[in-house]
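Subgroup meeting minutes
Present: P.N., E.W., G.H.
Scribe: E.W.

1. P.N. recapped why we're keeping a running log of single-chain structure predictions: easier to compare across weeks, and new members can see raw inputs and outputs side by side.
2. G.H. added today's entry (204 aa).
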Amino acid sequence: NDIDYADKLVIFGVTKIEPSKLKDKIISSSSCDCVAIAPLLESLKSKKIESCWIVSLHPYVSDQQLLDNTPKSHEPVLSPLMLRSSINSLIPKYTSIADVIMKALPYLKKKVSSYQIRVPTSCVSGALVEINFKEKVDSIFIKKWLTKLKEPVFRINEDLLTSIDFCGDPHSVIIDKRFIKNEGKNLKLLIWYDNEAGYSARVV
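Output recorded in log:
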């Protein structure tokens, strides 16, 4: 994992570069998934998260195959599934989302699990996030929570949009208000984020 080689992990809206510690030479800005999900979880810190389950839906990327293929002799195969056709398959994949989030937010250690599915679209990621809290989460809390979320990290969507409509959106995470579900101590969310433009905006 790239973050293991970094002196400092910085996620905009969660952690900062401290002037007194400029001896850090290698700064990791994490990944598009973590840039979106870590601020989301941090914003809910007051409710004391017991566990979090994440399934990210990530577009195919340039190192994947257009058609089912065999490995090139000079390249190691990290996962045989990544040799399957990216434009014809939903490909389950190991992801380091949980590991990075727990590193950025130590209070969530052993409380986060994550999975990723590479999907046959070229732009905009989504994620299904399920969070269990120590305390009850009601509609009053959710309404107050949403009003506190600020740009450029957060955007709240209520419009009839699909993933492609968020292509080029510079926010870290777009919370789809249409699909917020809460019951007792459980909260379910659907979020969107442009895995290129949103991430790059935070790096800059």
